[in-house]
Amino acid sequence: TLSNCEMSPLRLEMVRRLLAELPKRPQLEQLMILSTLGSLGQAGEVESTLLPLLTSSEDPVLTVAAEALGRVKSVSAIQPILESIRQKRGDAEMMVEALEAIGTPEAIHALLQLLNTEDDKLRVTVIEAIGKTQGNVGLTELVGQLTQQEVRMQQDVDSVKWADFEANYPDFIALLEAIHQKRFGGLDKFTEPPIADLLASEKDYEKFIALRVLADGKPYNRVIVASIEGKRDLFPQLEPLCSNPSPLMRVFALQ
Q: Whole-prediction pTM value?
């Protein structure tokens, strides 16, 4: 099995043989070899062969090579992958995931350069990828994007499609979830005290995160409300938000 190969003293020899066979094989086998190299290889072992594929190959070899370099966390692949995305070569969403897999500050900064793409679907993928990376790099930019969207909605409030908000504004929801992951580590680590603290926060994005957790109904609002009952009443904190100057905040609070 692949896990046995990873532990084998012959691992390096397997990698060398796969690299030697790569140019000799038909495309389908090349894709299988590339995928295996991403699991077995290390950056220093495969970069000299795989990096040139990012500029000389077309899809699907280009995309699978980028995935493999992402899995081995090749810092040298960051700029070529970014350029391929900009040039619309290969599967952009899968290459964004390769940058996410590399996960270094340099890779996150490359992702940040794609935040203003005109491709709505790709922008959501980029936001989600930044949210999954470790550390606080990118958090400020995500909060800035969220604030810009909130301001635009306030300026043109009558055109906002409130009835089906999540479907119509997936990038806003993606930003909230990404900020949540970067700031608090995701819903699975969300405990009672942050809810009350975030509702009292001076930062709008922290209020939005708390309100969305409570409104979603999954997986924690029942547990949080039940644990607060008799100890801490959230309504005094929620009621002022229902008359907040921000229409978006009012809608989230009412939900």
A: 0.85
